[in-house]
Design brief:
It contains 15 helices and 27 strands. The protein is an alpha/beta fold. The protein has a domain at about 425-530: 2-Layer Sandwich (GMP Synthetase, Chain A, domain 3). The protein is globular, with a radius of gyration of 23 Å.
């Protein structure tokens, strides 16, 4: 790959990630995947084994009739089989619809119906939840399970064990590869369509930002089902011949650092929340010496200077911040070798013409706040929103794609984040649409109206806060707070539940009756004395 100054996109006409990347590394005695289960047991897979297993998954899926272009919902936890299933789908030219395994059946049902998925791949841990879709999922007719036998489900991992390897069918770079769903704000989540050119183009990010190299061990802590897991767990490291780490268990600061040391991780990509919680450990840099670790990155929201300084003091490494979206890729970042300016997002990454523009699409002068915008159509940019031509058009202003975030640029070209232009809440490693939480709250008989915003939090960046107007006859006490929180955990993904609930008599609204979440966000900022630059994706 060319250096950043001479970089240009050179996407082949035909491309298939599983065949053109994984299979080409299959003969080399290199580790591809290090999997650590919830009990701490480790299992290493060489590229040859990943290639073989994913080909057997492709053979199994082919025997079940899965064809080129069909949509497949993949709702699996952080397990090795997630990679085999995703690659197997890729080999057939089918389109993966990745979903976080914490999503409830109605979250997944919407994605299945909206995408027209014919197939779902689920896990024994969420089988009962996914079973609830039967009868409502309009197009699903293949229910595939990993981890156990169950009535009405085909055991995919067992079927793959006995299947002949199938390398796959030809695919063009313009063929769809993924439909990844965003978090909704005032509407349901949007399906972001990416083609196989996007798969190829992700090696830019892996090279310039992750700085992944052959022989590296890269750990990106993102859960499966998110765009970041496609970037930095699956596609990015393997595009550079590096090993990737998948840890099944939930995050615990001490355990994470123990594993980073034990696995000799060389490149670490974590959510800002995870870095923050690790930085609070008293013996950071004393109990944990990490001689193998040479490079650290983070994305999701700005890291505060205290965390950056604490990490640098402990390990001698500067965490490099990056900015991207589900709809695109890493657009702006601090890259290795750059003069990092604390608090800055960095500068545009190779292959991306990113500027800050005004309402007329004119580039703003240094220091003037405007909309972060991408010019042109690089292969990292999405093809559009599925069934959303109007939304796709609305995301453009002349030659510019608008990210929905605002920033300013200094005279040296460094971007400085100002705030979100929409209402999506960045909380820890998650992006949460207020509409989804509000809808869940409204199903409770006590709730007349609700508005959900991000409330500043020292560890998570934001927590989900709900302002709730009650129906007559209900008392807003601590018992009801707990009841509403548990209700949300049952109805939608548990990570979306409102950690804070405030009962109010009315909500601020526009003349047309739309809730003004911006007023509630500003109220929380004033109360907690936080910066308005609460986060980015």
């Amino acid at each position: 790959m060319n250096d950043r100054l001479n970089f240009h996109w050179d996407v082949p006409a035909d491309f298939n990630f599983a065949r053109d990347v994984v299979d080409r590394l299959a003969d080399e005695p290199r580790t591809a995947l290090i999997f650590v289960d919830a009990r701490g047991n480790r299992r290493d897979y060489a590229f040859g084994e990943v290639a073989d297993r994913s080909q057997r998954y492709a053979g199994a899926l082919r025997s079940l009739g899965l064809a080129h272009g069909e949509r497949v919902v993949v709702c699996l936890p952080k397990i090795a089989e997630w990679t085999f299933a995703m690659l197997g789908i890729d080999r057939l030219g089918a389109v993966a619809v990745p979903c976080a395994d914490q999503l409830r059946y109605r979250d997944v049902l919407f994605r299945a119906n909206h995408s027209g998925a014919t197939t779902i791949v689920a896990h024994r841990s969420n089988r009962e939840e996914m079973d609830r879709m039967r009868g409502e999922a309009k197009t699903l007719h293949r229910y595939l399970l990993i981890g156990e036998d169950a009535p009405g489900w085909e055991r995919l991992d067992a079927l793959a064990e006995g299947s002949l390897p199938f390398a796959g069918t030809p695919t063009k770079s313009s063929d769809w590869a993924y439909v990844v769903y965003t978090s909704g704000t005032t509407k349901e989540p949007k399906g972001v369509v990416h083609d196989r050119a996007y798969q190829y183009a992700k090696r830019m990010q892996a090279h310039f930002w992750l700085d992944a190299r052959s022989g590296d061990t890269v750990w990106c802590s993102s859960a499966t089902g998110w765009a970041k897991s496609l970037w930095n767990v699956l596609i990015g490291p393997w595009s550079r011949g590096a090993a990737t780490v998948i840890h099944e268990a939930a995050f615990k600061p001490e355990e994470r650092l123990d594993l980073v040391r034990a696995l000799n991780v060389t490149v670490l990509c974590q959510a800002p929340t995870e870095y923050r919680l690790e930085a609070k450990l008293d013996d950071l840099g004393v109990r944990w010496q990490l001689p193998a670790l040479r490079h650290c990155v983070s994305a999701g929201e700005p890291l505060n200077p205290e965390v950056l300084a604490r990490w640098r003091d402990a390990f001698g490494l500067t965490i490099l911040d990056g900015y991207g979206q589900t709809e695109n890729s890493l657009l702006v970042a601090n890259l290795p070798g750059d003069d990092v300016r604390p608090g800055s997002m960095g500068r545009p990454t190779p292959g991306h013409d990113v500027c800050v523009v005004d309402e007329d699409g004119e580039i703003c002068k240094p220091g003037i706040t405007g909309d972060i915008a991408l010019r042109g159509e690089p292969p990292t940019l999405f093809k559009g929103y599925l069934h959303g031509d109007e939304e796709t058009r609305a995301s453009h202003r002349g030659p510019w794609y608008l990210t929905g975030d605002r920033a300013s640029v200094d005279s040296d070209g460094y971007f400085w984040f100002v705030g979100r232009a929409d209402d999506v809440i960045g909380s820890g490693a998650y992006r949460i649409g207020p509409f989804e939480v509000e809808s869940a709250l409204l199903e409770h008989p006590a709730v007349a109206e609700s508005a959900v915003v991000g409330s500043p939090d020292a560890d998570r960046g934001n927590v989900v806060k709900a302002f709730v107007v009650l129906r007559e006859g209900y008392a807003g006490d601590e018992r009801l707070v707990r009841e509403l929180q548990e209700h949300c955990k049952r109805v939608t993904a548990p990570y979306k539940y409102p950690r804070e609930i405030e009962f109010v008599t009315e909500l601020p609204k526009t003349r047309s009756g739309k809730i003004r979440r911006v007023e509630l966000r500003q109220l929380e900022l004033r109360r907690k004395g936080a910066s308005s630059a609460s986060g980015y994706a």
